[in-house]
């Protein structure tokens, strides 16, 4: 049986592998965009549940990750590595930080493994491949 954590790892490997195979990950915007997307899901869950307070808190948290995505895109992609890993670690304690009734029970373990796997793959890419110049 596939666990949410295993699905997160497999999906991150598949998405990153696909991006690598076609050269999409060579664009500096790829992983910052992934960070923006993963940071937005908790906001989406709060909106879907009609949880106004949670929506505001989640939007504030997501805004911090969006700022780091922009810094990583403009300045140094290692910020994106750190933010993806941090977002994954936030998944470990998310329920203690924000009461968001829209979050599926399986989501934190899925998101944790997706984020940390994506961070590791980006780190490996940055370490072993020449950086892409911004256009």
What report would you give on this structure?
The protein is mainly alpha-helical. The protein has one domain. Helix content is 77%, strand content 0%. It has helices at residues 4-22, 30-49, 52-74, 78-97, 107-128. Helix 1 (4-22) packs parallel to helix 5 and helix 3 runs antiparallel to helix 4. The model has no long low-confidence stretch (mean pLDDT 94).
Please supply descriptive tags for the structure shown above.
135 residues; mainly alpha
Separation, N- and C-terminal Cα atoms = 45 Å
- Put simply, the count of helices is 5
User: Given the helix and strand composition, which structural class is it?
Assistant: mainly alpha
Tell me the β content: under 5%
Which value, in Å, is the CA radius of gyration?
15 Å
Along the chain, the helix and strand elements come as HHHHH
- What is the average per-residue confidence, as pLDDT, rounded to a whole number? 94
- What is the share of helical residues? over 70%
Number of domains: 1
Largest sheet: none
Shape descriptor reads globular
Report the uncertain regions.
Answer: none
Give the number of DSSP strands.
0
């Amino acid at each position: 049986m596939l666990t949410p954590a295993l699905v997160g790892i497999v999906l991150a490997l598949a998405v990153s592998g696909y991006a690598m195979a076609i050269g999409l990950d060579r664009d500096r915007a790829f992983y910052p965009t992934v960070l923006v997307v993963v940071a937005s899901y908790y906001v989406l869950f709060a909106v879907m549940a009609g949880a106004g307070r949670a929506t505001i808190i989640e939007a504030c948290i997501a805004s911090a990750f969006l700022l780091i995505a922009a810094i990583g895109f403009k300045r140094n992609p290692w910020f994106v590595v750190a933010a993806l890993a941090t977002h994954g670690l936030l998944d470990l304690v998310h329920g203690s930080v924000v009461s968001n009734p829209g979050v599926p029970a399986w989501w934190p373990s899925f998101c944790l493994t997706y984020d940390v796997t994506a961070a590791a793959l980006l780190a490996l890419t940055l370490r072993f491949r020449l950086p892409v110049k911004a256009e």
